[in-house]
Amino acid sequence: MMHLFLNALAASAGGGLTYLRNVVARLSARDDVRTTAAVNPTLGQELQELPNVSYLEFKTPANTTLRFWQEQTALPEVIRRSGAQVLISSGNFALRKCPVPQILLSRNSLYTSADFYHDVRARRDYGIWVDTRLKAILAKRSIQWADCTVAPSEAFAAELRRWSGGNVVFIHHGFDRHTFFGSDDPLPVAVQQKLDDAQDSLRLLFVSHYNYYRNFETLLRALPVLRERLRGRRIKLFLTCKLHTEANPGSYRADVVSALVRQLGIGEQVVELGTVPYHLLHHVYRQCHIYVTPAYAESFAHPLVESMASGLPVVASDLSVHREICGDAALFFHRFSPIELAGQVLRLASSDALMADLSQRGLRKSQEFSWRQHVDQITSLAQTLLSSAKAA
């Protein structure tokens, strides 16, 4: 039985938590793998006791640089004591002196995004600019330190290879229909009421906490255009966040986008649901008409697969990653053009046949993503590295 050590200390929200939740369950289901996972104790009830999986809780600093230093100094000895044979580093940073073969999972597209660096400079958010630049240095070196780096999409793997010159392969992240659609628990009353109040509206959905690279501004600027061209039909944009700085993780300032909502006069069109628990998200997808993402940086985008699996037609910014994940199951627009975004939404809203066609294409496309397949490929890669290390 191969013993894996999963460094998941960086998983706290969003894609990192989605990854941890699904991958640990799939690893547990294998009878040829034992897993030790280093996790942050703040996860609490997010993780359940599973066969062949043990958890080591580490209280880590909130500051990424301090967490990186703690991992470099403390984890090598912990890995030795655990008896693990291969390390999977899931938080973009590798151990420089790893005692066992190491797979690095790299999924942060900001380190290579010229749009992001331009955006934060334009906002004069120089602290985030410096912080991201420093993390990018560590992320690039991590690719060199790891025995192999895995990106969640082919497009992002190619970008990482150009950026780092390192050994980068791609293994798609997965999707599990049973896990995602399995809960019959209802939405909180307040959330369901907001959805019920919009039954006579064209309902758009964007699943994300607030940050800059999701490009909320382009989406919001499209709403007045849609409101005018829909000829009296109401429109609602549902957000799974609050447009308030203190209500979102990280240090992104939401005051500018809140002011933009007021400036554009779209307060009635924008509905802030707040964070919706993962096991309840399927209720929200299925009560909306179109999924929209204007993100200008991405490495995979789980909500695209979730929306396609839910039967929602997709309108997405024209990124290589989005085209890879959605294929012909989406309409695309230039990532900074609210006019193009509005035009693609209107194409869908005016054609039931196109809506139905994209819905069916999306359902088929979503079936290409599997957490079981992802874990099979990761463990196969780990076995290859382990065999090479034993032969050396």
DSSP strand content: 5-15%
Sheet of most strands: 7 strands, parallel
**Shape assignment:** globular
Q: Structural class, from helix and strand content?
A: alpha/beta
User: Which fold name fills CATH's third level, the topology of the largest domain?
Assistant: Rossmann fold
Number of domains: 2
Helix content estimate: 40-55%
Q: Helix tally?
A: 15
The strand count comes to: 13
In the sheet with the most strands, the strands line up as 3-2-1-4-5-6-7
Order of helices and strands: EHEEHEEHHEHEHHEHEHEHEHEHEHHH
Features:
2 domains, 7-stranded parallel β-sheet, globular, single chain, Rossmann fold, 6-stranded parallel β-sheet, 15 helices
Please give a quick description of this structure.
With 392 residues, the chain is of the alpha/beta class. The protein is built from 15 helices and 13 strands.
Would you give an account of this structure?
With 392 residues, the protein is of the alpha/beta class. The chain is built from 15 helices and 13 strands. It folds into two domains: 2-174 and 370-391, Glycogen Phosphorylase B (Rossmann fold); 177-366, Rossmann fold (3-Layer(aba) Sandwich), CATH 3.40.50. It has helices spanning 14-28, 64-82, 114-122, 126-145, 154-164, 177-181, 189-196, 216-229, 255-264, 281-285, 302-309, 320-326, 338-349, 352-366, 371-391, and strands at residues 2-7, 33-39, 53-57, 86-89, 102-105, 148-151, 168-170, 202-206, 235-239, 270-272, 290-293, 314-317, 330-333. The protein has a seven-stranded parallel β-sheet with strand order 3-2-1-4-5-6-7, sandwiched between helices. The chain has a six-stranded parallel β-sheet with strand order 10-9-8-11-12-13, with helices on both faces. The chain is globular.
